[in-house]
């Protein structure tokens, strides 16, 4: 529908804007999960060149019919980005990366596939460039899994959240830097009523969701328990799996 096309092009424009490309020369961009090439149309309009990768041959057929200007590659990014080092001046991806969190085959391990994607993407990007990946995470665990693998692969950066207070317009952009840590761009609509800015999520290697004044999670809270279990796992100890019941209070027995 035209509404979907409109949202898609808005997100492509925003992703390209977050790349912070030089204005004086055309760049070569990678579009991960390019689909029928809607983001590519915007990249071409802006005077840049692009190569699109997608796992769906049907979508790529549509892109070919639409005579998009980019080159197209049928591939599963979970198996890696097959381009030579430093080839791209930037990478965008609209609504695609969260699919790597699904294990479609028995042999698929989401953390491994994410790491393979991010580490080969890191290599294929020129030093000082960025990757901006718009995604629809199912939950905070998914976001954490994705960001952790990006950091393991060498990226710095964090999550830019546009319109965080709106259920409809809220958008997540994972903004990653290669080889330089730039300043994380500000999310749209993050000015609070008092004109103060909401803090963007910078990522560090530790969980920072519920912290009390000393910067520690509230003792015995779910987060505190999860952090403790995570530390034990890192020490190689046997730890029970996390479930939705972790950290829940039991009802008093009569």
What does this structure look like?
- The protein folds into two domains: 1-203, 3-Layer(aba) Sandwich (Rossmann fold), CATH 3.40.50.150; 216-253, no CATH class.
- 30% of the residues lie in helices and 19% in strands.
- The protein contains six helices and eight strands; from the N terminus they run αβαβαββαβαβββα.
- It has helices at 2-19, 38-45, 57-65, 110-124, 140-152, 222-234, and strands at 28-32, 49-54, 71-74, 88-94, 125-135, 156-162, 171-177, 201-202.
- Strands 3-2-1-4-5-7-6-8 form an eight-stranded mixed β-sheet, with helices on both faces.
- The longest helix is centred in the first third of the chain and has 18 residues, at 2-19.
- The protein is globular.
- The N and C termini lie far apart (57 Å).
Q: Could you state the oligomeric state of the chains shown?
A: single chain
Stretches where pLDDT falls below 50 for ≥5 residues?
198-213
Tell the overall outline. Answer: globular
Largest sheet: 8 strands, mixed
Strand content: 15-25%
* CATH topology name of the largest domain: Rossmann fold
Helix/strand order, N-terminal first: HEHEHEEHEHEEEH
Number of strands: 8
CATH class of the largest domain: Alpha Beta
Strand sequence of the main sheet, in spatial order?
3-2-1-4-5-7-6-8
Number of helices: 6
The domain tally reads 2
What is the H level of CATH, i.e. the homologous superfamily of the largest domain?
Vaccinia Virus protein VP39
Please identify the structural class as seen in this structure.
alpha/beta
Distance between the termini: 57 Å
Q: Name the helicity range.
A: 25-40%
What is the averaged pLDDT score?
86
CATH architecture of the largest domain: 3-Layer(aba) Sandwich
Q: In angstroms, what is the radius of gyration? A: 20 Å
């Amino acid at each position: 529908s035209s509404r979907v096309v409109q949202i898609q092009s808005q997100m492509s424009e925003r992703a390209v804007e977050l790349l912070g490309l030089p204005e004086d020369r055309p760049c070569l961009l990678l579009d991960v999960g390019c689909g029928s090439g809607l983001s590519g149309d915007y990249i071409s309009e802006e005077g840049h060149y692009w190569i699109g990768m997608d796992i769906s041959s049907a979508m790529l057929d549509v892109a070919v019919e639409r005579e998009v200007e980019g080159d197209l590659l049928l591939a599963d990014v979970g198996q890696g980005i097959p381009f030579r080092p430093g080839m791209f001046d930037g990478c965008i991806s609209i609504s695609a990366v969260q699919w790597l969190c699904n294990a479609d085959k028995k042999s698929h391990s989401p953390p491994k596939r994410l790491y393979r994607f991010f580490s080969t993407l890191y290599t294929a990007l020129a030093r000082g460039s960025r990757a901006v990946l718009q995604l629809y995470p199912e939950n905070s665990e998914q976001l954490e899994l994705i960001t952790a693998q990006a950091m393991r692969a060498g990226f710095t950066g964090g999550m830019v959240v546009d319109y965080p207070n709106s259920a409809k317009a809220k958008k997540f952009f994972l903004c990653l830097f290669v080889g330089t840590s730039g300043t994380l761009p500000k999310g749209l609509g993050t000015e609070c009523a008092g004109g103060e800015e909401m803090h963007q999520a910078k990522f560090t290697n530790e969980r920072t969701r519920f912290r009390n004044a000393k910067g520690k999670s509230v003792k015995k809270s779910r987060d505190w328990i999860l952090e403790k279990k995570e530390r034990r796992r890192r020490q190689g100890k046997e730890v029970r799996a996390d479930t939705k019941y972790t950290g829940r209070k039991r009802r008093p027995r009569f």
